[in-house]
Amino acid sequence: MTAVTRAEYCVIACAEVWRGAGEILASPMGTIPSLGARLARLTFAPELLLTDGEAMLVGADGTVEGWLPYRRHLDLVTGGRRHVMMGASQLDRYGNQNISCIGDWARPRRQLLGMRGAPVNTLNNPTSYWVPRHSRRVFVERVDVVCGVGYGRAGGARYHHLHRVVTDLAVLDFATPDRSLRLASLHPGVTAKEVQEATGFTLTVPDKVPYTREPTGRELELIRTVIDPRGARTREVPA
Amino acid sequence: MAGPADKAMTADAAVARLSSGMTLGIGGWGARRKPMALVRALLRSDVGDLTVVSCGGPDVGLLAAAGRIRRLVTAFVTLDSIPLEPHYRAARERGAFALTEVDEAMLLWGLRAAAHRMPFLPVRTGLGSDVMRVNPELRTVTSPYGDGETFVAMPALRLDAALVHLNRADRAGNGQYLGPDPYFDDLFCAAADTAYVSCERIVETAELTKEAAPQRLLIPRHRVTGVVEAPNGAHFTSCAPDYGRDEAFQRYYASTPWGEFAARFLGGGEREYESAVAAWRGGERG
What we know:
heterodimer, A: 13 strands, 26% helix, globular, B: alpha/beta
């Protein structure tokens, strides 16, 4: 078997987000989080619920097992039995996330998607983020528009929980006294210095940072032959 | 014995009942089952100065580019397979209209509030985010019970009119969806004083449940003002299972300067639109 690629470490790191989550809906956005969720479902988290990306709940082989149109999806969000992994155009040290626009909201320099479900997601169910290109453009001191609510702004909202941030370089979490971003693991081949240099604010870097875990042989085989035989993962994170 | 009123009308007749300054809800979601034939009829009319409530797709892009929107109420605007709607973006970046940006749940609850004739519904969303900063008129409400939690009081999104597109309907206005997702179309109709349902095909009432489950009857006739038969009326958005999204045409729409697109496709009626699309397709293949 050929060496594990960066994209494959990213799939593993995304899958790990849903470890131990229980019988909840995994809502991955983006290619690699979707592959990660399916991998988790096929291996260590068989109880996860997945959708077909539209209105059906489906098993790992695509068998329809339920119906989840948008309105029921939003009911499920507020019911809390879900862990979403969203993208982020900007993300700050406390996990405030922006997907709305760049610049002044009243007259944006670049209009993006809009708030979408980020406000309701972050106040109601566990939320993680996926950043396929870790850079200072994404990891900024202050986001221009707060869509996903970060620590310090949630006002003690009872269901607010930011779990992890997975990027093409590393895994980050909020396990610091002030709930700010901390380097949790490096993908093999990446240094802490590289991650810090690609981040627009100072990260908490523990003395010893572990590497993102290796995939098992079974996991690699599933990624390469079952979940993503056509290599969509390398279009999001080059090998 | 007299039956319910026959509400069948043309798209132009439906749009003739709208007027400038109205608050208009548009059904569908992103680039999925949008009432595009009704939007095109709107573009042929001189109705403008609209407040548009929509889970935005090319409906918003077309109306924004044509300068018909005074205020947009939305959580996003997307073409789905093309994440960012270029004509909407351009209009927003030149400050062409006001925006009430809420999140998806707030939009859903705002329509529910209107449908239930409530002034607001409490929602656990918005607090902590810039939804509150960019909508300073939003108020909160505190639970009178032991928990004392504070919520956003999402105001009712009451609509003057709703435009939706479904797969089938009868002439009385009973509307049926056959695809995977009803989106919010019934709520748009219930939140509106008047509602216009376009459909792929008008059928006899008995036909509606001949092959499809009664649960697919999404919109009841008492919410409907007019029924428009508009085959291919969601084009270029998807209208499953009747047809999928016209991805090639959507790409052309997204990559063509607005003036050029409008002159080529939006100058005439729906029949002219269909022939212009057919000519474009022939030219592209040739």
